[in-house]
Amino acid sequence: MNLVRDTRQVEQGGPERRVNLHTSPETMAGVYANFANVSHSDYEFTLTFARVEHEVEDEEIPGVVVSSINMSPRFARELIDAMQDAWSKWETRQGIKNLPEYSRDDEHSGRD
User: Fold this and answer.
1) DSSP string for 71-102
2) End-to-end CA distance of the chain
3) Which pTM was predicted?
4) DSSP 12
5) Per-residue pLDDT tens over the stretch 72-105
6) 62 CB contacts (<8 Å, ≥6 apart)?
7) pLDDT-based confidence at 1, cuts 50/70/90?
8) CB 2 within 8 A of CB 21
9) Are the beta carbons of 47 and 71 closer than 8 angstroms?
10) Where does the pLDDT of residue 16 fall: very low under 50, low under 70, confident under 90, or very high at 90 and above?
11) Which of 13, 53, 74, 88 is at a distance of 20 to 30 A from 103, taking alpha carbons?
């Protein structure tokens, strides 16, 4: 079970709620993808994730789709915002790790 914060209620002045997500261990493990394609229609966006063999020298690169997700434009916008926020936090953390003052011991001492 994962609890995820629903920020839409807070933004609209309502109480904070938590989304209670249940998943199997297999789903929780996820899948690996090293390629993604984004397509859209007037009504939805589709993210297709695949695992492709980049090492192949052939004209056609073999791959297998591991997941395809359809979503509304509104949800696509929310996902983009969440990804940008997560990316910004990740970049900041990576930048801190590259500072000369940062040591590997900082990683294990609970400082984040």
Assistant:
1) E-HHHHHHHHHHHHHHHHHHHHHHHHHTSTT-
2) 25
3) 0.67
4) T
5) 999 999 999 999 999 999 999 988 888 787 766 5
6) 52, 53, 56
7) very low
8) yes
9) yes
10) confident
11) 88
